[in-house]
Structure formats: structure tokens, C-alpha cells
Amino acid sequence: MKKPVITHxxxxxxxxxxYVYRIDGMTDTDRTDGxxxxxIIHDGTFRAFSTALHEALEAxxxxxxxxxxxxxxxxxxxxxRFLWRLYKIKD
Length: 91
Prior knowledge:
Helix content: 25-40%
Largest sheet: 4 strands, mixed
Distance between the termini: 13 Å
Order of helices and strands: EEEEHHH
Number of strands: 4
Radius of gyration: 13 Å
Number of domains: 1
Strand order of the largest sheet: 1-2-4-3
Strand content: 15-25%
């Protein structure tokens, strides 16, 4: 697997990327000043890809109600599945 990304800038904020294995993901979007942090799983699976997409959209300013259903589930899985199939990423 490729060397992981350690930082990425969304909307002018540089996020430090941590790779975790116990949670799907978390993005620190409530702060007014840095450092900002994003935690994602990184194991080459669809779940990891879907999580990274979800966290990237949160860091890009998508609101919480736009990102989650009423039951708290992520709304990004359909888009992730489309991109996964489009680029024929293998699980």
C-alpha cells in the first residue's frame, strides 16, 4: 500500500491525518484555530474509502445534517460505492 498522506488542506485549514483501527473516522471541525485533526481507517477496504470520503466532506464544510440521516448513519455510502465502482477499486 502507498505511503499514507499525513496532512491535507480543506478550505484553507490544514488537517493532520491520523490512521486508526478502532473507529471509522472523526474530523475536528468545531475549532476556530488549529491544529485540526482527522482520524480515518486506512486498510484499502471499501469501508476505509467510504470513511475517508465522509470525513473529507465534513472537513470541506458540509453540515452535520447534510452528512447524516436522522438515525445518525452516514449519507456518503452511496456516493462512495459509486466512486468505488467507477474506478474499479478492489476490496
